[in-house]
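Below is a filled-in request sheet from our internal design queue. Each sheet records the structural input a requester submitted and the sequence that came back. We keep these sheets so that new team members can see what a complete request looks like end to end.

REQUESTER: design group, bay 2
PRIORITY: normal
MODE: inverse folding
CHAIN LENGTH: 248
BACKBONE (tokenized):
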């Protein structure tokens, strides 16, 4: 989480603060939505944030399971009950990943609203900013821009939660801390390359959750179904493997 927060603070200092010089009471091309890291023209910060998100989301509570698979610390030393152990750990893992993705973006949104007017996007001035083919609920930009930022903060948080569970699954399968951390990043990079080769068949998770996706997006309901199926599959896989290896 600290890495993500550091990135957004750099974005605030190096992009937002200099852009405040354009606020002269007349120009309206610098608004909170266009300055937020998700929609800002300086995409290097957004690219870095979403590129490392699978890794940073795995640097959390999910590592506890890897430790317990080898030592049984939580069960034997702390006396955690077997019934509550996995549900509690998996819930905390998802929430930890969620906060890793959502909190930095929320901080960036706070400064965007603090420094810049929270005006709706202009159809002429900001038409290149919002494309319904690469942004979910893009119409909100022209009516309720703050709601669009909140929606994407939640979407990114849920995606980061899945990355955290994916790291936990890699840890349970391979019992290797390096694969626990790098597994989600490797999978995401493979899917990103595959999505470029087969854009109509494969989608990359980091492209789906990005406010300005580099690829055309599937329907939102397809994303929701994919999220639910992935969530169930990961929880089921982690539970089965953990029970088989530790008798939890």
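RETURNED SEQUENCE:
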């Amino acid at each position: 989480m600290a890495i993500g927060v550091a990135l957004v603070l750099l974005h605030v200092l190096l992009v937002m603060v200099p852009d405040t010089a354009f606020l002269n009471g007349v120009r309206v091309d610098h608004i909170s939505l266009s300055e937020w890291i998700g929609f800002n023209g300086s995409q290097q910060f957004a690219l870095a944030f979403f590129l490392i998100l699978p890794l940073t989301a795995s640097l959390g509570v999910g590592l506890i399971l890897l430790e317990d698979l080898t030592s049984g610390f939580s069960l034997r030393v702390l006396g955690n009950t077997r019934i509550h152990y996995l549900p509690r750990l998996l819930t905390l893992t998802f929430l930890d990943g969620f906060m890793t993705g959502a909190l930095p973006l929320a901080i960036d949104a706070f400064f965007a609203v603090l420094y810049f007017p929270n005006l709706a996007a202009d159809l002429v001035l900001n038409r290149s900013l919002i494309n319904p083919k690469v942004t979910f609920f893009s119409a909100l930009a022209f009516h309720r821009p703050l709601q669009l930022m909140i929606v994407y903060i939640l979407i990114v948080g849920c995606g980061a939660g899945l990355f955290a569970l994916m790291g936990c699954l890699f840890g349970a399968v391979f019992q290797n801390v390096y694969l626990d951390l790098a597994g989600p990043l490797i999978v995401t990079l493979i899917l990103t390359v595959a999505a470029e080769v087969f854009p109509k068949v494969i989608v990359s998770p980091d492209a789906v959750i990005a406010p300005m996706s580099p690829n055309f997006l599937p329907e939102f309901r397809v994303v929701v179904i994919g999220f639910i199926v992935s969530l169930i599959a990961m929880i089921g896989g982690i539970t089965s493997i953990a029970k088989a290896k530790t008798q939890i």
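SHEET NOTES:
- Residues 8 and 108 are 6 Å apart (CA to CA).
- The two ends are 29 Å apart (CA to CA).
FILED BY: M.R.
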